[in-house]
User: Which sequence fits this backbone?
């Protein structure tokens, strides 16, 4: 657990970056600091590994004040990932990943063997090992950055805008990878982003900061979307927070209709398109019971006939959902929760 | 020219040997001295501008003036090769201290920050990350300094110690062109060879710049 205990940071010019911050980052969970620029989120993150020293107050990791610890040794036990990855251009991918183990006294051989395993872990094949960072795409560099941070198997990871320098498609892939990795590893992660969508997607806990380094609200993504503490939070999580909140509702208990003859199926029962005015139009996608209501709503909107198609594990169509079925379901849900 | 060489082979060879020695010792000395000075200019940012200014002034002192003035300052004999070595070392430091500082300053702060965040202490960060990343800039400076030194050594002939420069003074005194040609050709070849060697070293040390 990482604890901020009444932490204040005032810069020499007199500007307050962090204003009496007290919060706890639960062990094994991802906590995301999010807010507009100048809200002190990055400053707060950097106090954890002593890149920034608080003016007053304490930062503790598992009850130990970081201020009393040797900076270099403390940092070797905390993974650090930054925007643009910050890889060392003069070292191969493999040696970049081997950096911290080498610093902690592992032999080059041991460090490289471990690094090779980590590359695989972040989805990079062995052929990347001998390349230099300049030979990688932004997304690949970011993966190497994550592997490098994980190399010494630190219990705590700090991630400062780790995915904001890559294009949306690559970011989507990295998000999935991140969630998969974190499910395996269960690190205590502090992440900074300015993107509320990213915060909601990746965070177990989200801390929203406002200008001047004040914590506006902290809670699970769903709590923030459902019950924003004030107008600032409501505004920040966005006008479409109702729609975004659907990401947390499973499509499993959504009632479906039977298939209609307008749905074109192949010989294995897999949907191929809709028969519309004598032609066949594309489906736009399908969902399963593992998807969210957000996905279903999206499918119903883009479908040429306003109907989302559900499929089973084999890919065969097994039910339909119309626009108004969704509306009914949501109305019923509101009735239940009220 | 061939006959000149065959008759004066020993003199020319001795001049060449002295030239190499007078040019390269200051390069090595200057490089070793410039590294910490350049680093200081980055470690303490307020030092950078004074450093650049002092280096600029030192570099603008005419070499002949320095060769003549140094014996007064150092108490060396006017004909001592030490005067040339010290003078050229001063020029090398003036050139390289700034290059080292500029090279280190040009290292992406993000990389330096990442190194600190991973637990590098200051000195190891300098030797393992900052200097290697700054190396292409520093070696480019080293090339200029080496070539400049090779050409400056000849000026020393005017005070009696000047490697191949002695061939110029001799040719001039005797109204005899052959030694001058030989001197020019050898100086140019020497400069090209030294430059080529540094380029090879650079290629070996910084494979990543061609990545």
Assistant:
């Amino acid at each position: 657990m990482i604890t901020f205990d009444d932490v204040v940071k005032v810069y020499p010019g007199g500007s307050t970056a962090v204003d009496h911050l007290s919060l706890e980052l639960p062990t094994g969970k991802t906590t995301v600091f999010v807010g507009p620029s100048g809200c002190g989120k990055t400053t707060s993150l950097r106090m954890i590994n002593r890149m920034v020293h608080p003016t007053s107050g304490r930062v503790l990791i598992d009850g130990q004040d970081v201020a009393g610890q040797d900076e270099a040794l403390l940092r070797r036990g905390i993974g650090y990932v930054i925007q643009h990855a910050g890889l060392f251009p003069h070292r191969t991918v493999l040696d970049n990943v081997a950096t911290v183990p080498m610093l902690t006294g592992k032999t080059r051989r041991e460090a490289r063997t471990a690094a090779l395993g980590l590359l695989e872990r972040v989805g990079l094949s062995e052929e990347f090992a001998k390349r230099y960072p300049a030979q990688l795409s932004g997304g690949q560099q970011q993966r190497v950055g994550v592997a490098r941070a994980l190399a010494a198997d630190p219990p705590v990871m700090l991630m400062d805008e780790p995915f904001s320098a890559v294009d949306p498609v690559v970011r989507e892939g990295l998000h999935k990878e991140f969630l998969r990795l974190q499910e395996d590893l269960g690190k205590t992660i502090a992440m900074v982003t300015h993107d509320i969508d990213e915060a909601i997607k990746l965070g177990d806990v989200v801390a929203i900061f406002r200008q001047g380094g004040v914590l506006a609200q902290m809670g699970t993504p769903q709590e923030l979307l459902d019950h924003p503490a004030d107008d600032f939070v409501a505004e920040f999580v966005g006008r479409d927070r109702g729609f975004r909140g659907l990401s947390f509702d499973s499509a499993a208990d959504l009632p479906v209709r039977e298939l209609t003859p307008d749905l074109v199926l192949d010989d294995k029962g897999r949907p191929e398109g809709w028969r519309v005015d004598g032609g066949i139009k594309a489906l736009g996608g399908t969902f399963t019971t593992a998807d969210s209501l957000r996905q279903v709503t999206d499918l119903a909107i883009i479908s040429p006939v306003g109907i989302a198609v559900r499929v089973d594990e084999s890919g065969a169509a097994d039910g339909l959902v119309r626009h108004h079925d969704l509306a009914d379901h949501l109305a019923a849900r509101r009735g239940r929760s009220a | 020219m061939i006959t000149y060489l065959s008759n004066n082979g020993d003199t020319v060879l001795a001049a060449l040997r002295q030239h190499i020695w007078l040019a390269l010792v200051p390069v090595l000395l200057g490089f070793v001295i410039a590294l910490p000075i350049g680093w200081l200019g980055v470690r303490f940012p307020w030092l950078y501008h004074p450093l650049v200014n002092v280096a600029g002034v030192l570099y603008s002192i005419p070499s002949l003036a320095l060769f003549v003035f140094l014996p007064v300052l150092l108490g060396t004999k006017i004909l001592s090769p030490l005067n040339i070595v010290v003078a050229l070392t001063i020029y090398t430091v003036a050139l390289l201290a700034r290059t080292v500082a500029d090279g280190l300053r040009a290292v992406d702060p993000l990389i330096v920050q990442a190194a600190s965040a991973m637990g590098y202490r200051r000195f190891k960060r300098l030797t393992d990350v900052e200097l290697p990343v700054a190396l292409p800039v520093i070696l480019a400076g080293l090339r200029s300094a080496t070539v400049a030194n090779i050409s400056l050594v000849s000026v020393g002939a005017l005070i009696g110690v000047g490697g191949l420069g002695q061939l110029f003074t001799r040719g001039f005194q005797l109204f005899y062109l052959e030694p001058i040609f030989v001197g020019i050709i050898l100086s140019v070849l020497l400069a090209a060879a030294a430059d080529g060697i540094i380029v090879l070293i650079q290629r070996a040390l910084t494979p990543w710049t061609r990545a």
Notes: The domain at 263-337 of chain A is CATH 3.10.580.10 (CBS-domain). Chain A is about 35% helix and 25% strand. The two ends of chain A are 35 Å apart (CA to CA).
